[in-house]
Amino acid sequence: MKKKVSIKDIAQTVGVSTALVSYVLNNKEKEARVGKEIAQVIRDTAVEMGYQPNQIAKSLKTGKSHTFGLIVADISNPFFANLARNVEDEAKKFNYTVIFASADENAEKSQNLINILTERQVDGFIIAPAENSQDQIEALLKNNIPLVLIDRYFKGLDTNYVVTNNYEASYHAVSHLIAAGKTNIGMVAYKTDLVHMLDRKRGYLDAIKDNKLLKAKTPLIKTVDFNANQEEIAVGIRELFAQNPAMDALFFATNTLTLKGLKSLNKMQYRVPDDVAIVCFDESEAFDFFYSPLTYIEQPLLEMGKKAVQILIKNIADKKSLNTQISIPSKLIVRQSSATVKKD
Amino acid sequence: MKKKVSIKDIAQTVGVSTALVSYVLNNKEKEARVGKEIAQVIRDTAVEMGYQPNQIAKSLKTGKSHTFGLIVADISNPFFANLARNVEDEAKKFNYTVIFASADENAEKSQNLINILTERQVDGFIIAPAENSQDQIEALLKNNIPLVLIDRYFKGLDTNYVVTNNYEASYHAVSHLIAAGKTNIGMVAYKTDLVHMLDRKRGYLDAIKDNKLLKAKTPLIKTVDFNANQEEIAVGIRELFAQNPAMDALFFATNTLTLKGLKSLNKMQYRVPDDVAIVCFDESEAFDFFYSPLTYIEQPLLEMGKKAVQILIKNIADKKSLNTQISIPSKLIVRQSSATVKKD
DNA sequence: AACTTAAGCTTAAACGTTTAAACAAACAAG
DNA sequence: CTTGTTTGTTTAAACGTTTAAGCTTAAGTT
């Protein structure tokens, strides 16, 4: 086993001080006025000896790890996995390394992850914050740690964030259902006070109100727990139908809700879109294969990932920079599941 | 902004040396014979001052980063995203942090990632190796860097690895199709020499041979590029049908191939399983929603992730330990797409 | 009383870098 | 030739830890 070669080893073989080697390998020859010939020798020997800089030592000295943490709910959820991939790619362009972590919508886990990553001296965070994690975010801000919220944010907190236009997208999606002739539209969402979810509900509600569809039996919103299984969702849907047997459309607030919801509808023998039309927030590969291809809201994952990284890196470079708060529009992809269909 | 508090700060406020603080905070009081009372004072002050150890400094001193790299093809692919999640969870149990990276089945990117992570002083790697990356793996071995291959491995290389029983699973899946009465079975796979893919092909082929179904028109294997789009897969399938119009079943080698393949079949108006039965390797949420729920091979992702981490950590602790090579069985989940159906 | 042992603590070097400051030699200018 | 400037190089401290080795005092053992 070969020992790792350090700057000292190179210095020794070339016969110069470590300072010179450092200057050359960091392309600071100009500022440091290093001789042209010796610079070349140093460079060559470095290659010859297979030198790989020790980033840990570098970080310790410079106080920058060129690493940041990405905390999401669950990296195995396609929404976050795709986001993560886009973040990874964009980060690489800036020579940054990303450490992903899953907090499972759990504030305690989230705090734990923040601690671990802070100890690892990450230069900043991109976080899809869990409920009740507001104080954790505030603490980071107080410690002047660069940070960008993604997917969700906190109303009262002045932070960087990158989200999609949850309210408008929902409003638009529900309006689309109404335009298709649906008059009793239900919604299945998560039970949480996170802004993105509240916005989606508001969008639903306002669309209904603005179209004078707010009757005794509406709004038809059912909220379930983040870790609700399929059975609980089936129960929720059954309750919605009980509340208003005329329900002719369902708006699902996320892709996981949709997947479980569709399976439930299948089991209950409801037909889409004849018995009930469907629109949902976020996408899934599975939607293409549902017998009635789903109408869904496509989130701008690529843009969100890119922007978040760019904002974070700007913020790391200039900690005094003003907060950037952007909302990137989503797109409604209309397909069969929300089509106008003549009932009997 | 508060300055970060170091061991030195604690030492100063308590009025002791940094050594004492270090011993106490690392629970080495016994070995270092630290006084009971002062130890408590140190502990209390550390908490009071909000001390967070600097892992970077720790790593530099100890030579261990308590971090490892996980290199997969693409973190946004559900197969790898799920694997990643399991790896993350298991690693956390050992207080290890994971850095994920996507190599896109590209040896050059893979080498680049290995370099970056090596510079970051990861203690080891879990790698789903790309084609032509064998020499990169060999180089790591030569440098005595702990490493576990996952999903795939190299025949000639003595490394740790954790895979599923690709050959047997494929053999079993194809035998199942044969048992269901299919006699002209095609296969769509990736064009690569990676062992896992070769094994899946061998399994297919042997099942056909052993059942005396090897005729002039078989084997019906079509291979496509890793980044093949749907159109190319459609072409492949069309060619298979051209080669043998009697083809009555298709075996797809991965989930991405399946998804694109199913879309192609839909476009070409083939019905599953009546016109063509389907079985595929690996799963996807989408398979539940295909009109004819898919029969698939379920890989033991949880076990694979766990085992890989355990082996890696054992190897990090004891670099001389013998290589562990395990193959965890997959499970065939039989559903409608491979059902026996009377034709005409 | 003289010596050993134990207990409790400090010193200081080291990990692999970066970088300001000091130094030395060569050259230019008066 | 002094003095100043430029060019090329070294010195050494620092980043926040760990840990072997050393030091001091008190307590035990003859």
Automatic annotation (TrEMBL), chains A, B:
UniProt keyword annotations, A-Z: DNA-binding, Transcription, Transcription regulation
Boundaries of every HTH lacI-type domain copy: 5-62
Pfam family, any one: Peripla_BP_3
Organism superkingdom: Bacteria
Name of the protein in its database record: Substrate-binding domain-containing protein
